[in-house]
Each structure stands twice: as C-alpha cells, then as structure tokens.
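The following record pairs a protein chain with its ligand, 5,6-dihydroxy-NADP.
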Amino acid sequence: MQGFDYQTPTRLIFGKGVVEKLPEVMDGFGKKILLTYGGGSIKKIGLYDEVKNLLKDFEIFELPGIQPNPKYDPSVLEGVRICKEKDIDVILSVGGGSVLDCSKAIAAGAKYEGDPWDLITYKVRAKSALPIVDIITLAATGSEYDMGGVISRTETNDKIGYMDPHLFPAVSFLDPTYTFSVSKKQTAAGCADAMNHIMEQYFCEDSTILNDGFMEAALKSLMINAKKCLENPKDYTARAEMMLACTYGCNGIYSLGSSYTGWPCHGMEHALSAYYDITHGEGLAIITPRWMKHILSEKTVSRFVKYGINVFGIDANLDKFEIANKAIDATYKFFESIGIPMHLKDVGIDESRIDEMACHVAENEGLENAWAPLLQKDIAEIFRASL
Ligand code: NZQ
Ligand code: ZN
C-alpha cells in the first residue's frame, strides 16, 4: 500500500431543497458575487430565478454562456476581468462540470497578476484563489468535490486538466432534483464519465481490497441507477445515488493507497474533445473498451479478472483471458445499452487527424508512464480501433 497526503476541504450540502441555505452560506464569503452559468439550462429549470431571489441582498455580477468543454477565451479571461474589475468576493457556479471548471480557473486567475494560462499549464503554481461555491446540476465530473479543472484552448487544440488544492470548492450544493431535466444523452455521458473515473483508478498495479470494494460497488451503483434515470428522469432515489457516486469519482478517495495509473483514457479523450469538441463522457465510453483490449496482457489480466467477476458476475471458473474478454465486452455492451454512440465516426471523428491527435497526446499527457504504458503508436491504434 502506498503512502498518501489527503485533504478535502469541501463542504457538501446534499438533498432536496438544500439551496435554501444559500444566503447563509454566501454571507460567510462576502457580498460581491460572480454568478457563472452555461447556455441557459438553469433558466429553463427555474434555478436561476430561485438563486437570484435567494440572493437579493447581495451584489451579483454575471458570467453567462460558459460552453461545454469550457474555453479559456473568452470565458476564463472574461471571468477574471470581471473579478478584478469589480473586486469580487466569491464565485457562485450554477451548472454542470464545465461551468464549475471554468469558475475554478477564474478563481485562481483572479488572484494572479500574469496570464491565467500560466496556472493551467503549471508554469506558475497558484498562491491563492477566490472561494468557490457551486450548485451542481449534472451528475458526472465530480468537479464539485475535487481540486481539478479542465480548460480548452481552441487555437492550439489544447484541453488541459490540471489540479491545485486552491481549486477545491468551499461549498457544494447537491440537490438531485436539479438533475431531473438532464437529457438522456447527458445522463448517459455523465454515467460513462463517472464510471471511467473509477476505472482510471481501478486498473493499477497495487490496490487494496478496501479500494476495490468501494470502486466495484460504485460501478454497479452507477450502472443500475443510470438505467433507472433514463427510464424515469424524475426518479429521485436513482438521481440521488448517481449524483453521490459521481461526486466521489474524481476526488481521489477511491484510490488512497493505490499506485499511480496515469489516467490514460482521459489523456486520450482530451485530444478528441480538443480537436472535435465532442461530449467528454461519450469520448471516454468509445475509447475505454478499445483501450482495455489494447492493454490486456499477462501483466494486466488479473485486474480484468477481478473486475469481470465482481462487477459483471462473470463465472470465476473460466480461463482468465476469457473472463477478461467477457468483461471488456460487457463494458462495451453496457455503454451501448444506455444509448451512447460507440464509434468515433458516430460523433463526427474520422481517420484524417488520428496521427496528429496521437502525437499531441504522446507529447502532452505522459502516458508512457501509465500503468500499461502507451506510446504514440499505441494511442493511434486505440483511436483507429475506435473508429
Ligand atoms: O450550458 P447549459 O445550458 O447549462 O447546458 C448544459 C450543457 O449543454 C447541460 N446541462 C447541465 N445541467 C443541466 C443541463 N441540461 C439540463 N438540465 C440540467 N440540470 O448539459 C450540457 C453539458 O454540460 P457540461 O457542464 O459540459 O457537462 P459535464 O458536467 O459533463 O462537464 C464536462 C466537462 O467537465 C470536464 C470535462 O472534460 C468537460 O470539459 N471534466 C472535469 C473534471 C473535473 N473537474 O474533475 C473531471 C472530468 O474528467 C471531466 O474531464
Ligand atoms: Zn472525466
């Protein structure tokens, strides 16, 4: 078991109607708020009006229009400009992971005199950040309980995930009823994203019975509850359990004491989203089974055996490679069964830029050090197998 240094400072407030506590929570941070949100879903579900009403005694500035795969320019830059100009005390992010990730970059950029890109690329480490409060409206990324953010820069085809302890939200409100309106596409993509967060931690050299048990249960919970959410989008219990499983996903708590994995599927998916602006969870679902097939070997097979038996109930008496292959097929079939397009061509990606993307990943994501190392040719092969 590996050593670790772990702290999560985020306060989680979970349940139906919890947003009523918003004024009291915001009061602890100051009166000037930057309210960040996306393309309008929070207005459609009445949350925007609810927030404005609850915070009528505060001074609110707004940054709307944050896109999925949030963009450095204009959203991060514009948010930093407002924070500095208006001397903002706290950021309130209302929306999905993209709004929150953008808010995290703004929070750190607001306290930095140089180009905020320096912080995203680790050229400079953040010394502080504005406090962030969020109301998360989509179960997927776990950004509400982690210190990561992912920012895209269109002109350089960069989509960079970065971590900094200053990026933990101070408070996250999780009301599953706000996720009732999430589309089938985004519900399925969110499930695939959260499942992949777990797999990125599960498939490693050195794990524990404890971590494996957590993760196997979380995978089963996500698969069962995502199907229930798709059948009945207003199933509170299913939305709630899915939300919490997603919240834990990226925090690191599932893999305390486990060895380094390199998060290879995320490394590869970042290029797909950066070059083609696709939905993150769909890109992951497409890549994951192909990555699994690619890395299956004498060295890795025992993890697939455990995964296959404990998550999918595959017969433990079969040959180890048969169990592993059945587990990979079951993974593919599950994603397909929740309506995810399972080929890159289905999401508008063809052969033309595969080598360019593989080169970009190989140069930027450090996957040669992953548990099952991936070089440029491996990455290109996985992309081609995903077409
Ligand atoms: O923009 P609006 O109008 O709000 O609509 C959004 C968006 O179109 C919509 N939506 C959100 N909540 C809704 C809703 N529609 C109806 N009802 C609601 N309650 O859903 C669409 C997608 O939203 P987005 O925020 O992009 O989705 P998600 O939460 O999946 O975030 C994806 C981003 O997070 C990054 C991804 O790379 C991607 O950029 N990730 C961040 C991580 C982190 N910080 O830890 C980890 C993940 O691996 C992930 O990489
Ligand atoms: Zn992800």
